[in-house]
Structures are given as structure tokens and as C-alpha cells.
Automatic annotation (TrEMBL):
GO terms for molecular function: acyltransferase activity, transferring groups other than amino-acyl groups. Residues 13-153 form the N-acetyltransferase domain. Signal peptide: none annotated. Keywords: Transferase. This is RimJ/RimL family protein N-acetyltransferase. It comes from Zeaxanthinibacter enoshimensis. The keyword Acetylation does not apply. The keyword Transferase applies. It holds the Pfam family Acetyltransf_3. InterPro entries: Acyl_CoA_acyltransferase, GNAT_dom.
Length: 197
């Protein structure tokens, strides 16, 4: 996976483009309006300095080959609606995570995230030829857990006292996975890929 390359993923509904420093102005109104969007994330959020740091960390992790952050354009509204990333990238093991996902409340439940996950899973398995995609979720985040289960993610483990949150709480992290051999069935039966092009 060449992390220096401009990866753009697009469907009729959504466009994922590489995150850049200048996206601060697009993302800041979301962070200020919904400061609790990352309540289950260890990243500070909801202020301009926190978002500046969030973007700086994401771009630094891209430079080190650990993460590839995207901004999400909702083609219905024509506005940037949030962000998602490939992360914990292991080319040797042919494995990566999909996560760091946050969306403005007004687009949640509209199918936008489903389009994003379809594009990211398709790219991971069909272009990058990954063997496994994982999702790491705070055990308390029932909404995200249900969403991953709906797209075929299988719960594999719960890591106790795994990650320190901004308030000092040590969260349990639940790991879900999708295997390469499971993807064709998921694509056909869950995503009905013809409706997502």
C-alpha cells in the first residue's frame, strides 16, 4: 500500500479523499456543533485546538505508514460530513483496521456510512488484497457495534482495560473482523453492491 499516493474512493453517494491540513475549515463546524462525537475515542475533540491536533496526528501517522485518513464528502449535500481511516496497517500480515470514523449527526442513519464502509472494504480486499479487516470499538459503543455486525463483522475478542480515554477511564475494546474469503458473500448478500455503485 503506497501511502504517498492519492487514494480517492467514490460512489454515487459519497467521495472519500485523503485528509489534508486545509480540511480543518470543513471539519471544524462539525466538531464544534457535536463535541461528543468522539465520546468513545481516546482522542480529544470538540475544540479547534483538539481538531488541529487530531488532524496533525492523523497526517503524521500517514507519513509513518500506520494510517491513511480520509475526509468524507456527502454528494447529496455537497459538504464534508466527517472522516474515516484505514489504520494499524500491516502489509506483512495483509491486515488493516477500518475506524476513526465520525460523521455529522444529520447524516447518521442516512446510509452514508454504509457507502463509506462498502468502498473501504472493497478497496481493502479487492485492490490492496488484504486478508483481514478489523474494527476496534469501545465495548460501551453499542451503536457502532451494531453497525459493524450489520455489515458482517464477527466479534472475535474483548480486550479488557485496553485503552485510556481522555477522562482517564480505561475502556474495554471489542475487536470485530471480516476475512477475505467472507467478503464476496458479504458484498453480495449484505451490501447488494449493485445498489451502492
Amino acid at each position: 500500500m503506497d501511502l504517498t499516493k492519492e487514494i480517492v474512493l467514490e460512489s454515487s453517494r459519497v467521495k472519500l479523499s485523503p485528509m489534508k491540513e486545509e480540511h480543518l475549515d470543513d471539519l471544524l463546524p462539525i466538531a464544534l456543533k457535536y463535541p461528543d462525537l468522539l465520546q468513545f475515542s481516546p482522542s480529544p475533540f470538540g475544540t479547534k485546538p483538539a481538531l488541529e491536533e487530531y488532524i496533525a496526528v492523523a497526517l503524521k501517522e500517514r507519513d509513518t505508514g500506520r494510517r491513511y485518513p480520509f475526509v468524507i464528502l456527502d454528494k447529496v449535500s455537497g459538504k464534508i460530513a466527517g472522516s474515516s481511516s484505514f489504520g494499524n496497517i500491516s502489509l506483512k500480515d495483509k491486515r488493516l483496521d477500518i475506524g476513526w470514523t465520525w460523521l455529522a449527526r444529520e447524516v447518521q442513519g442516512t446510509g452514508l456510512n454504509r457507502h463509506c464502509k462498502f468502498l473501504m472494504l472493497s478497496y481493502a480486499f479487492e485492490t490492496l488484497e488484504m486478508e483481514k479487516v478489523e474494527f476496534r470499538i469501545d465495548s460501551r459503543n453499542s451503536r457502532s457495534r451494531r453497525a459493524v455486525e450489520k455489515i458482517g463483522g464477527v466479534q472475535e475478542a474483548e480486550l479488557r482495560s485496553h485503552t485510556v480515554m481522555t477522562d482517564g477511564y480505561r475502556r474495554n475494546t471489542v475487536i470485530y473482523g471480516i476475512l477475505r474469503e467472507e467478503w464476496p458473500g458479504i458484498k453480495k448478500n449484505i451490501f447488494h453492491s449493485g445498489n451502492l455503485q
